[in-house]
């Protein structure tokens, strides 16, 4: 089976082609217009998808050395994400499926992230914990059986990636915040400033990054108000370490609570090398089997959507043409 995947949930326009053996192509275009605004502007994002999606699909097919008639199915993100952006991808997917007379399947964006690594590693045995950290999501998910997900922890306010973006804006480091914070932090002291670790002493597995973001803002404002110098690198490094500490600690609490010996990391924040290094070190110490996607599969991309679609199409699942977008779709919800 050969499947075309389409991903337009936010500000990446992406198309990919996969078969049962490998990802044949995975074309990703990140919209640069949002850099001027310090965050994604939904209307601009959907307009960019309209312009870019069809050419990118053609590029993905060309890279895979295939044509539309070689496709056996279409997979497309239908939630969560920005409603206008999701509509562009879903509309194109439906049109292609109808014209080619092939099935299509709507894919949960979060499942795509999880299966970006789990689907490529047969050694992963259920149950396992998946930690998903991105610009829009910070989740701990228990996967007891394939394709069955239970949220056991989530952010009560900002997602980790969102906090990176907002702190980068405070420090005037540019957008997106993840790469710029990490680059700046390399020159700083991660223990220079004791920023808060919210919900640290709680028994639950939830996250909170809004207070951390505000603490950074107040620190910078206070220094500037009093005319005191401060190290932007130290602020970036200390903030980054606070996020990493919380994500690692809460994830291992979940592993212990549910007796899991397998861990999957997913989402754009997982590209952070400090985060990856600390997870690798602790997993080695506690003998936890760790699976991390290649960096290209951490960010939003159609390769993960196509792969998830392939698995579900092989199970005989199909979506009908009444499928709508679900901007607030959770990993444990079904939306039709």
Secondary structure layout plus pairing:
Elements: E1 3-7, E2 12-18, E3 23-30, H1 42-64, E4 73-79, H2 83-100, E5 104-108, H3 109-118, E6 128-133, E7 138-145, E8 148-154, H4 160-170, H5 177-185, H6 210-225, H7 232-257, E9 262-266, H8 273-286, E10 289-291, H9 302-314
Helix pairs in contact: 1-2, 3-9, 4-5, 4-6, 4-7, 5-7, 7-8
Give a description of the structure:
This protein is α/β, with parallel strands linked by helices. It has 2 domains: 3-113 and 297-314, ATPase, nucleotide binding domain (Nucleotidyltransferase, domain 5), CATH 3.30.420; 124-293, ATPase, nucleotide binding domain (Nucleotidyltransferase, domain 5, 2-Layer Sandwich). It has helices at residues 42-64, 83-100, 109-118, 160-170, 177-185, 210-225, 232-257, 273-286, 302-314; strands at 3-7, 12-18, 23-30, 73-79, 104-108, 128-133, 138-145, 148-154, 262-266, 289-291. The strands form 2 sheets. It has a 5-stranded mixed beta sheet, with helices on both faces. A hairpin with a 4-residue loop joins strand 1 (3-7) and strand 2 (12-18). The longest helix has 26 residues, at 232-257. The chain is globular and about 65 Å long. The mean pLDDT is 93.
Give Rg in angstroms.
20 Å
Q: Class of the largest domain, according to the CATH hierarchy? A: Alpha Beta
- What would you call the structural class? alpha/beta
State the separation between the terminal residues, measured CA to CA: 24 Å
Tell me how many strands there are. 10
> Roughly what fraction of the amino acids lie in strands?
15-25%
Any idea of the CATH topology of the largest domain? Nucleotidyltransferase, domain 5
Sketch the major β-sheet: 5 strands, mixed
Biggest sheet: strand arrangement: 3-2-1-4-5
Binned, the helix content reads 40-55%
CATH superfamily of the largest domain: ATPase, nucleotide binding domain
Give the topology string: H per helix, E per strand: EEEHEHEHEEEHHHHEHEH
Poorly predicted runs are none
What characteristic shape results from the CA principal axes? globular
Number of helices: 9
CATH architecture annotation name of the largest domain: 2-Layer Sandwich
Count of domains: 2
Could you report the average pLDDT, rounded to the nearest whole number? 93
